[in-house]
Design a protein that fits this description.
There is one protein chain. By secondary structure, the protein is an alpha+beta fold. It has 8 helices and 6 strands; from the N terminus they run ααββαβαβββαααα. It has helices spanning 14-26, 32-40, 62-71, 94-103, 151-171, 179-191, 203-223, 232-262; strands at residues 45-49, 60-61, 76-80, 106-110, 114-123, 130-139. Strand 5 (114-123) and strand 6 form a beta hairpin. The longest helix has 31 residues, at 232-262. The radius of gyration is 19 Å and the shape is globular. The termini are far apart. Mean pLDDT is 85; it is low at 1-7.
Length: 265
């Protein structure tokens, strides 16, 4: 079955891994094999299709595809994390934006008008599932991506967001909501210390991504129904109050992943 897009704060987006390790490779800071292995993660396979020059049905491994992107003039990669009404990181055309929106993520090349959208297939019985990913390449418009702040702007927004989140989440009594919320918090803490980004990224990018994922995890717990507010109307009010913080977190994540390609070094 095809996986539906889920904003899972405990897992790094596959487009984030491809952006980070692709940028490290293109900057000469990671080997092709190391970059491909890092992008693959725990998935079974990643294949790429639709590159310029491909025949219909051609599929390539990550190592070959990343090399081909370099030959095509790609000098860096950018992450997009769009959601409804917020085409974060996208440049068009509408057809590509719609595919990226449906997936909840995409990667855009710098130096060639190419975008990649992951199609994720989860197969096998519960408890013994595997994952295959097919990256579909599409033409994109060249130009600045929508809504992406600088790393400095993102860090400032996050500082304000963390203060606001603390107040709001305390008011919503997320931490005191009982066993389910405590389990969710423990899950975040357990997974929240994995290595972030890839070789060459500046310390500020790591800090920004760490803070953004912390906010994202706490908000996911709050929006998952934990806390004192349990009625439908209270949950709707909670979503409205927390929506700006969700957007701040996503903007910061995109800024962090894109910083190796976009920020001066």
């Amino acid at each position: 079955m095809l996986a539906t897009p889920v904003d899972n704060p405990y897992e790094e987006p596959r487009s984030g891994r491809l952006t980070a390790w692709g940028n490290a490779l293109l900057s000469g800071l990671a080997s092709p094999d190391d970059a491909a292995a890092a992008v693959l993660g725990e998935d079974e396979t990643h294949r790429v299709t639709g590159l310029p020059g491909d025949a219909a049905g051609d599929e390539h491994g990550l190592t070959w595809a990343l090399g081909r992107l370099r030959v095509l003039g790609v000098t860096g990669l950018r992450l997009a994390l769009p959601d409804a009404g917020h085409p974060l990181g996208l440049t068009g055309p509408p057809e590509f934006n719609a595919e990226a929106m449906a997936a909840g993520e995409a990667v855009l090349a710098i130096g060639a008008p190419i975008g990649l959208v992951p199609e994720v297939e989860v197969y096998g019985p519960a408890g013994d599932q595997g994952v295959r990913v097919l990256w579909r390449c599409r033409p994109v418009n060249e130009g600045p991506p929508a809504g992406v702040p600088s790393l400095f702007e993102a860090e400032r927004e996050l500082a304000d967001g963390l203060r606001e989140a603390t107040v709001l989440l305390t008011r919503l009594d997320v931490a005191g909501a009982g066993p389910e919320a405590l389990r969710a918090l423990e899950e975040y803490r357990r997974r929240g210390h994995t290595e972030l980004l890839a070789p060459g990224y500046p310390p500020r990018a790591v800090r920004v991504l760490e803070s953004a994922r912390r906010i994202s995890a706490l908000l996911a717990i709050a929006l998952g129904g934990h806390g004192a507010a349990v009625s439908a109307s209270e949950m709707a009010a909670r979503r409205e109050v927390l929506a700006p913080l969700v957007r701040t977190s996503r903007r910061a994540q995109v800024a962090a992943y894109n910083s190796l390609a976009d920020e001066p070094r």
